[in-house]
Design a protein that fits this description.
The protein has 663 residues and is α+β, with helices and mostly antiparallel strands. The structure holds calcium ion. Residues 197, 454-455, 473, 477, 479 line the site of calcium ion (CA).
Length: 663
């Protein structure tokens, strides 16, 4: 105190400087004390490069993630606020039980047909007043960190409400974001939002919160020049809500639950759980390049099948009149013409969009289905999911939201041999909607029906969880190319994003690969395509979905190049493997997919400059005969036969494409 008084009588500059020293000394001691008190545990991926550190500093549960020397996720909060207690504070880390987990699985409808998954599992137990309150279960593979919470029953308490998650993600300073905003509820077309159909901002600063409601998963971050991180979630079903990513401030983001107004206000924003419970997995995929992001299988590694397939489902290709002909094309004669077109292409299906119940009718649909069967073509039928949650007037309505009507409808479908359904206009991410997705899927499996969702949420591991799940939209899909020239002008730019974000975590029903020059049946009017025919071929491979309904039209048999039609006849929709070659979201994307012993290298370019690249051809074997589809500067495409050498120098013009495949 004496000293202090003395200091106060000195010149102000010395006073401040000494005060600063005292404060720093106190802070240093505090940090020594707290680290002496805090427990810290760390564990790493099987290759030792990806490391998670968990601690209980200041009575909170925290974790951080490093790849090699680089911290990708700084100290970030964990924990739950529940009806049983606030498990975000007053916590101590009792310990982490660490073991290695290995699982091999086969899945025909994702990016890779066979996955050998290996990860370090750490079950970290947190206590309050000496009693365990929750476990945080981590999985660390060589490219992904994932975690979820598990809660046990407490005495007579067998159910609980999870009100919120503290689950945070602290990105390093200088990180750039590649995000699309979550919509406010009950907005957009016929009050159908949120439906994961918003535009991305690219290379943006952190510290923003979309349109005020955060961001839709998955969320991509570029951590300076050190690498990339993709944050998402998986394993969401009727036992929880689907989440979004909210910005807290600066580089700190956290899990957000649905908005109260979703689903026309029906249902809670929190999750009601039966105990014991495990929450969905929070996933962080990291890499020094985008390779880990493109190649990750984490959405599927962490979930298991919820019921057995009632039959061997047939995936494959189909045609779809609506994208060119819109609502009026959903009539008997036009659909018959598309069945003939699908048959001519060797395609398995035709997707008949909205209003078929009024414009074709149930009786004539049976006739159409029989005609399709005679041509080897199955039908997908469109349905409105509504319900009580939006104003979308498209019919059939009221057939998918309730069990009795739904099962009666599906029994009719089975009786006439319908192959699948496309259900549109869902009501958001609350738990009741997650249950509806699951109920539609499990009922459809009883009747041997494949399911595509549109106007919907992101699929979160559903390809593995539900064997008759085909794909979801959850993207600004091809319909926007018909609706506006702006979407056509930005088509390639948007397509280069999906490879690294939306499509890498789940099947994406885009409905693209248009070969019409114009989005109209006469191919002369309407919005016009600025991308090349080779681009259309490349996106048939770039966009992954085991069921594809391409935006091709019967006139393409005569007005599109033969090489383009031949390619579209033969392109696979199921794949054995995928590898990243090069790319940058919003600029260009080059990947390779493998189907059997055929390697499909595909590239598209949205940059203003032509893209020059040297493509490594070593996967083909020297001297193998390859087909190389490429564009000249005027976007005129052609195909050449080339003998495989070590490398091939290629140029992809703006809005152009590249495809290389074994002959
Ligand atoms: Ca849509």
């Amino acid at each position: 105190m004496e000293n202090y008084v003395y200091l106060r009588n000195r010149k102000p500059i010395i006073h401040y400087s000494n005060m600063k020293k005292i404060i720093l000394a106190v802070l240093a001691m505090a940090s020594v004390w707290s680290s002496a008190w805090a427990t810290e545990k760390s564990f790493s991926s099987p290759d030792g490069k990806l490391t998670v550190v968990v601690d209980d500093q200041n009575g909170a549960a925290n974790y951080r993630v490093s790849l090699g020397e680089t911290e990708f996720i700084g100290r970030s909060p964990l924990g739950l606020k529940t009806s049983m207690g606030d498990f975000t504070q007053g916590l101590t880390l009792a310990g982490c039980e660490v073991k290695t987990v290995k699982e091999s699985y086969d899945l025909r409808n994702i990016k890779k047909s066979h996955v050998d998954y290996e990860a370090t599992e750490a079950v970290c137990s947190f206590e309050q007043q000496g009693k365990k309150v929750m476990d945080v279960v981590f999985r660390v593979s060589n490219r992904d960190v994932a975690y979820r919470y598990t809660l046990l029953p407490k005495g007579q308490t067998l159910v609980a409400v999870i009100e919120s998650e503290a689950s945070g993600f602290q990105l390093p300073e200088g990180t750039k974001t590649f995000l699309c905003p979550q919509s406010r509820p009950m907005g957009g077309f016929a009050r159908t939002s949120p439906s994961y159909e918003t535009s991305y901002t690219l290379d943006d600063e952190m510290g923003k919160n979309g349109w005020g409601e955060g961001y839709s998963f998955p969320c991509l971050f570029r951590v300076g020049d050190k690498g990339w991180a993709l944050i998402s979630e998986t394993g969401v079903d009727g036992r929880y809500v689907a989440s979004r990513l909210l910005n807290v401030n600066g580089g700190l983001y956290k899990i957000g639950f649905p908005q109260q107004g979703e689903c026309n206000g029906w249902g809670s924003t929190s999750a009601a759980v039966a105990l014991p419970c495990a929450t969905p997995w929070r996933t962080i995929t990291v890499g020094t390049t985008l390779a880990n992001i493109v190649e990750t299988t984490v959405p599927f590694d962490l979930v298991s099948q919820k019921y057995k397939a009632s039959q061997e489902y047939i995936y494959g290709k189909g045609s779809w009149s609506w994208i060119i002909g819109m609502d009026s094309s959903c009539n008997f004669d036009e659909q018959k013409r598309y069945i003939d077109f699908s048959a001519a292409m060797g395609y398995q299906t035709v997707l008949i969009d909205a209003l078929w119940d009024k414009q074709i009718g149930y009786e004539k649909m049976a006739e159409l289905a029989a005609y399709g069967k005679s041509k080897g073509v199955g039908l997908f039928l469109w349905y409105n999911s509504n319900g009580t949650w939006n104003d979308a007037p498209q019919s059939p309505l009221g057939k998918m939201d309730k069990s009795r009507e739904r099962r009666a409808e599906m029994a009719w479908m089975k009786s006439i041999g319908i192959r699948g359904i496309k259900v549109d206009f869902f009501g958001g991410d609350k738990q009741n909607m997650m249950q509806l997705y699951e109920d539609i899927l499990s009922d459809a499996n009883d009747f041997g029906i494949l399911v595509i969702f549109h106007g919907c949420t992101l699929p979160r591991g559903w390809e593995k969880m539900y064997p008759n799940y085909a794909a979801s939209e959850a993207v600004l899909a091809s319909e926007n190319l018909h609706f506006g020239q702006g979407a056509c002008d930005a088509e390639a730019m948007n397509a280069t994003i999906h490879t690294f974000i939306r499509n890498t975590v789940g099947s994406m029903d885009f409905g693209g690969s248009t070969l019409n020059k114009f989005y109209s049946a006469d191919n002369k009017r309407g919005t016009h395509r600025v991308t090349s025919d080779v681009y259309a071929l490349a996106t048939a491979v770039l966009f992954q979905s085991a069921v594809q309904h391409f935006a091709l039209a019967p006139n393409n048999l005569t007005d599109a190049p033969d090489w383009a039609i031949d390619f579209m006849k033969n392109v696979p929709t199921t794949w054995d493997d995928v590898k990243f070659i090069d790319g940058y979201p919003g600029k260009y994307a080059i990947i390779v997919r493998r189907a059997g012993d055929h390697w499909f290298i595909v590239g598209i370019n949205a940059d203003k400059q032509p893209l020059k690249a040297n493509i490594d051809l070593s996967m083909y074997g020297k001297g193998a005969e390859l087909l190389v589809y490429s564009d000249d500067a005027q976007l005129n495409g052609s195909v050449k036969t080339v003998k495989a050498k070590k490398q091939l120098a290629v140029t992809i013009p703006t809005n152009g494409g590249l495809v290389i495949v074994n002959k």
